[in-house]
Amino acid sequence: MQLADLLEKKIEKGELAPGQLLPSETQLRQEYGVARGTVRSAVALLRDRGLVVTLPQRGTYVRQS
């Protein structure tokens, strides 16, 4: 939940722009010192909130407004 909130704030501030690829699972794990499951849960929460969209084999992107 905390990681999802942090990423949501970055999206709101424009640090992660619409259409931008979210950092990889590995990058997020290293940057925030969290487990893989935590990253996956955070991305799922962002998807549920309508902030990101995941494209199979392409990655997760910030949703266009």
Can you tell me about this structure?
- The chain has 65 residues and is α+β, with helices and mostly antiparallel strands.
- It is built from three helices and two strands.
- It has helices at 2-13, 25-32, 36-48, and strands spanning 52-55, 59-62.
- The chain has a two-stranded antiparallel sheet with strand order 1-2.
- Strand 1 and strand 2 form a beta hairpin.
- The longest helix has 13 residues, at 36-48.
- The model has no long low-confidence stretch (mean pLDDT 96).
For this structure, the quaternary state is: single chain
Q: Write down the secondary-structure element order.
A: HHHEE
Q: Mind telling me the C-alpha Rg?
A: 11 Å
Shape: globular
Strand line-up across the major sheet: 1-2
Let me know the number of strands.
2
Number of helices: 3
The main β sheet shows up as: 2 strands, antiparallel
Separation, N- and C-terminal Cα atoms: 23 Å
Percent of residues in beta strands: 5-15%
Helix content percent band: 40-55%
Question: What value does the average pLDDT take?
Answer: 96
Structural class of the helix and strand makeup?
alpha+beta
Low-confidence stretches: none
